[in-house]
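Researcher: Let's continue the batch. This sequence belongs to NCAIR mutase (PurE)-related proteins, and it's 247 residues. Same format as the previous ones, please.
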Amino acid sequence: MDLRKLLENVKCGSTNIDDALDSLKNLPYEDIGYANIDHHRQIRNGYPEVIYCEGKSDEHILGIIGKMVEKKSNILGTRCRIETFEKIKNIYPNCEYEELSKILKIRNNEIHNNGKGKIVVVSGGTSDIPVADEAYYTAKFLGNDVERVYDVGVAGIHRLLNKIHILQRARVVIVVAGMEGALPSVVGGLVDVPVIAVPTSVGYGANFGGLSALLTMLNSCASGISVVNIDNGFGAGYLASTINKLD
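Model: Same format as before. Here are the structure tokens for NCAIR mutase (PurE)-related proteins:
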């Protein structure tokens, strides 16, 4: 909800007080039994609530979307099953889906690019792309200029060095890697901007489902690196967007 526009409409008389109160009655949240939908979040944080679809029934996801559509919110869903998307698409034809990253998008308002610079998403290998794409589409949906540099892991470091000009033009770099997770340390030593490291669960047995990559990133000797949870591309994209919009 654009609260400023609502108040301006009341001030100029195009919206009466009763209608304005009706619009505000479900702020700051709406209790629908199985969910408390935080309609106030965009006013507080600048972004609407994001739907984490994994573990939710299709009916609950549709119910949450319905209430958010009533408020004309833009909707981002993560970890969405393709079967769920197909049901949603039948009801909301403007729904979009990114199959690799399992990202669901519904645009009810124009998304303006209000970032201060470019976010670059880097992946170690092709197997890391689903997580990298989750970061990419999250940051893009939140109104940022985002570029991808994929499959440039440390096993062939010349591939990364060939893209150094792209990295050095970024305002924030997201680095997604599995296996031993060394790539963020290398990138951190090449750029002068924040690096957000994302460990993935890609790797053989001793990778421990991403734990070895996580520990490598947490123990990085390069400065300026923050680390999000294993496979949390969404968290990295959201954090990068927040940094990119700071003055």
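Researcher: Any comment?
Model: The chain has two domains: 3-106, 118-244.
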